[in-house]
Amino acid sequence: MKRSTFDGQVVVYQYRVRSVGVGVDGARDNGYLPAEAMGQLRLAHELRNDLVRIERDHADAKARVWMEHPQIAAAQAAVDTAKTAVDEAEERARGERQRLRSTKISGALRDELRDLRARRKAAREDLAAARQEHWPAMQARFAALQTERRAAIKDLYRVYCATSNPEARGLYWATHNHVVARHDTAVQQVEAKRKRGEAAELRFHRWDGTGTLAVQLQRQAGDPARSPELIASGEGQWRGVFQLRPWADPAIAPRPRGKDRDGDITMALGGGRTLTLPVRVHRFIPADADITDVQLTRERVGPHYRLHVSVSVRLPHPDVPQTRRATAAVRLANQSSAAGILVARIAASVALPPAPRDLADVVRVSGRSADVHVPDTWRALWRRDDDIRSIRDDRMEALREAVIAALTEDPTLGQQVGVPPWARGDEDGPLRASVVAQWRAPRKFVWLARQWPAGHELAGQLEQWRHRDRHLWTFEAHERDALVAKRRDAYRKVAAWLCDVASEIALDGTDLAAARRVPDVSSEDKHGARGARRLAAFAAPGELRQAIENAARRRGISVLYAEEGPA
Predict the structure, then answer these.
(1) pTM higher than 0.85, yes or no?
(2) Is residue 408 within 8 Å of residue 435, measured between CB atoms?
(3) How far is Cα 367 from Cα 348, in angstroms, rounded to an integer?
(4) Could you give the percent of the chain with pLDDT greater than 90?
């Protein structure tokens, strides 16, 4: 395949899908999709789990090859023994911390953990040395396993998509490519974490009604440009692949307002089928854009679903400013202040202009410096959502006790309820009180409310809990989602305001993931560190950094990185 020679920038335009159907409660459903589209989402989900199965089988096959060598098998056994000893000591450390209600453990246990981890580290080094020593002799076998893995992944296309296979499941090829590409990225991330010594593995996901459908606008040499004007016209070779209407040149036409934003998309589902959905076209794609691919995503917010369309386009690099206006440095922060949570401090070589009116409670300018905050009003709403979650947990705990008491008093209730659809292992057979005692997911009690005998005195309590919990869950999830969207919008506006001033920006390159990492059980998790992690989870300084980086690159502003700690 010929490598692309594109030299520009990739920009994604996202549009919200308007309500198109009626939900189970009779209200308009923003996440409704027809059966054909839902079938494609389900197939994409099953394809992802099949890819995970292939990766796990490949890992097991490699482990079996390594274990055939006596020296490596002995080294692996030593690693397993050392790991078991560390796990047992860590479990005792957790129990001691819970018993003493402290973040510290005794010195003897701490010393034991340190010694056991040193032994585990030495055993891992011995295993790595043994593998490296015998790798040349075993390299051919691992190469054969890798070939089998690639063949198994390639064969999934025949199983799911190939038109030459009459038994193919009917997944659209573009969605297949999207799932495989995301899987490859996940494999690389897992391998990178393992190289850093972190625990990571690919996991199977249960079907929850979410996912992404994709289309690709393939273009050969000599084909016309995939311009938004051509795509909106419904003409040309991509008319059966994707359409987005309306469209106007944003350099001439004003930004759409009100009902002028009402548009629609049409995208292919494969097999000659198409899907048309109404969308909010809040902004037009530039006339010189080259549309490459489109993704329709169905996501879940609380008990509800919603849809959005992401259109990826290629744009030429903007003209780099010829005159230097100012330089600015952005240092990330993560601490409480009188104005809220301090997220970043900005220092510029010239006086900064006043912040836009709608950022008055977010940006505070003082001469050549400015502070970016998350206002306390937002933080209060976030805490309210935490309080709602606590109320839901307390209500579910009270319900659990009532169900356990009913099942203990009358074991025949378990036979009337039946076997949960997710049951496995000790959950097989009639429902027992000991099984309910282990439930932590509200969805399991929702299922129980629907299966409980209608004549039992607890049926009304279960149904009342289900309705109330759904209401609280909706309130909590949607308010938190609105807060996250408000924060994202504010950060993007801060980035645009800063890029209107600076021609060069130095960004703090601190590893934020390391700062949020929870220490192991042998280290004291101080109260201040826990508070800093909570602040970072809400303030999301990395999101501000990403917004500034994106805004700068779209405007042709150079970005530098400096390794600095939080202010």
Answers:
(1) yes
(2) no
(3) 9
(4) 60
